[in-house]
């Protein structure tokens, strides 16, 4: 069984006050005890913990399901209609309320650790530097996620020590991005190149996050340069493409060479992820996909991205299916007629003890991200150069089961593409490579393709009203913030 990198919260002495009805003397305060090398490491682990908390309703759950169903090729079916028809964007901001709370819990823990490290005079600078790097990485990534989902949010960079600190005005989007970049720039200089504890941030993870952030902001030269820095030093960081998709998505392996940064889950009750069970159907166990199946949506076979997917691409069979083998008999998977015709099968763990114990990790970044970020940004800056072709073709060659560093006529993109055509191919390739990994919606938004993609699907499906083009692209703030923060307007 995979060694669980499960982040157990340190018993930090944090006390928070309820909404103040009477003047409190003394006011409630938040404190963190003195740190030595052991308690520091435990505290750093506690900073990560909200991100990987089973039942935490963050990436492994609400986001893992909801954001993927917002892809143009997915539909939530009868049980999850509100996600795939974008009512969540227009009318139901509280779908992400638990995610908001969990994100800010991780941010709060990072802030507390940073403040404590600032005061500490006993730990060595080297020990403190790594801890700073991890805290800044977590805080930076959480705000990067938040600004893409909600837009303007309260930018809390100091610990909340009493009830009065809760009131904080929303920061402009550009100010949030500036803070995110600053955090990641510090992290890339403070973190080690490698880690013996998978699931902990490294310099390569911070650099990859920076490349992604720059890409989102349209700072293509910066994105290109940062991705190339990771590519040129992949041996230092231990990165490369894994030949086998089964290795990349194994529910039992602790890590692999493609893993840049992932949230770690294990085959332990209430310590695992949900994705394998969410996407599977009632025959999940017998079919070899999960211990149980919730049938929370599926993949639309008529969606242009899926319809045009080459059957020889190994990712198609690995990630989608319409039949499975049960006791030697080919059996049709359970789908919803005229809604979706395929199940999403990238996450598989039939040996999990329970649906809250699937061992599949959830990637925030893989080495494939680095290559595709470079290909897109290089093309934007210099056109479809040989370097841009080589980066995307490495990903495509792995998808076709051939050596990644050897040209292959079947796998490689057609030579001589225009800059626009190459950009379209990178967008398509990201759709295939990252299906099920919650990147498609963000890609649609940052490339201004939301209406194009949704209209393309609506032109071929039976019930286009299920996926209306959204009138806005960020969520409203959840009630939990509006009710507690009088300045969140």
TrEMBL record:
It is found in: Cell outer membrane. SUPFAM superfamilies: TPR-like. The keyword Membrane applies. GO terms for cellular component: cell outer membrane. The keyword Membrane applies. Keywords: Cell outer membrane, Membrane, Signal. It comes from the Bacteria. Residues 38-215 form the SusD-like N-terminal domain. Residues 290-449 form the RagB/SusD domain. Belongs to the SusD family. This is RagB/SusD family nutrient uptake outer membrane protein.
């Amino acid at each position: 069984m995979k060694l669980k990198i499960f982040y157990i919260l340190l018993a930090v002495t944090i006390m928070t006050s309820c909404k103040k009805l009477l003047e409190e003397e003394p006011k409630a305060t938040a404190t963190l005890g003195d740190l030595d090398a052991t308690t520091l490491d435990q505290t750093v682990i506690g900073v990560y913990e909200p991100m990987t908390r089973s039942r935490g309703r963050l990436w492994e759950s609400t986001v893992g399901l909801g954001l993927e169903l917002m892809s143009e090729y997915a539909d939530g079916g009868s049980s999850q209609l509100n996600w795939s028809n974008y009512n969540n964007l227009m009318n139901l901001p509280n779908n992400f309320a638990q995610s908001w709370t969990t994100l800010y819990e991780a941010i709060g823990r990072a802030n507390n650790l940073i403040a404590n490290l600032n005061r500490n005079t006993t730990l060595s600078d080297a020990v403190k530097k790594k801890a700073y790097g991890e805290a800044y990485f977590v805080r930076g990534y959480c705000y990067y996620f938040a600004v893409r989902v909600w837009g303007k949010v309260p930018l809390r960079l100091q610990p909340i020590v009493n009830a009065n600190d809760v009131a904080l005005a929303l920061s402009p989007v550009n100010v949030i991005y500036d803070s995110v970049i600053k955090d990641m720039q510090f992290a890339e200089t403070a973190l080690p190149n490698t880690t013996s504890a998978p699931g902990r941030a490294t310099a390569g993870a911070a650099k990859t996050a920076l490349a992604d952030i720059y890409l989102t902001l349209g700072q293509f030269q910066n994105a290109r340069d940062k991705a190339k820095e990771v590519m040129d030093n992949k041996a230092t960081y231990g990165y490369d493409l894994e030949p086998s998709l089964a290795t990349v998505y194994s529910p039992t392996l602790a890590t692999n060479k493609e893993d840049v940064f992932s949230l770690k889950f294990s085959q332990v009750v209430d310590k695992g992820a949900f994705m394998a069970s969410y996407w599977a159907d009632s025959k999940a166990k017998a079919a070899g996909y999960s211990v149980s199946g919730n049938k929370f949506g599926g993949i639309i076979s008529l969606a242009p991205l899926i319809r045009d997917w080459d059957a020889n691409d190994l990712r198609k069979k690995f990630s989608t299916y319409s039949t499975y083998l049960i006791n030697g008999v080919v059996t049709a998977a359970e789908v919803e007629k005229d809604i979706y015709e395929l199940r999403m099968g990238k996450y598989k763990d039939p040996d999990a003890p329970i649906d809250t114990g699937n061992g599949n990790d959830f990637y925030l970044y893989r080495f494939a991200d680095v290559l595709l970020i470079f290909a897109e940004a290089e093309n934007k800056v210099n056109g479809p150069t040989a370097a841009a072709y080589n980066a995307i073709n490495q990903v495509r060659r792995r998808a076709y089961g051939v050596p990644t560093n050897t040209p292959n006529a079947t796998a490689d993109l057609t030579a001589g593409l225009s800059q626009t055509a190459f950009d379209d191919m990178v967008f398509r390739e990201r759709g295939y490579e990252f299906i099920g990994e919650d990147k498609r919606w963000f890609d649609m938004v940052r490339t201004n393709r939301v209406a194009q993609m949704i209209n393309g699907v609506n032109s071929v499906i039976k019930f286009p009203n299920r996926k209306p083009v959204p009138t806005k692209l960020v969520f409203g703030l959840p009630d939990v913030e509006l009710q507690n923060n009088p300045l969140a307007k």
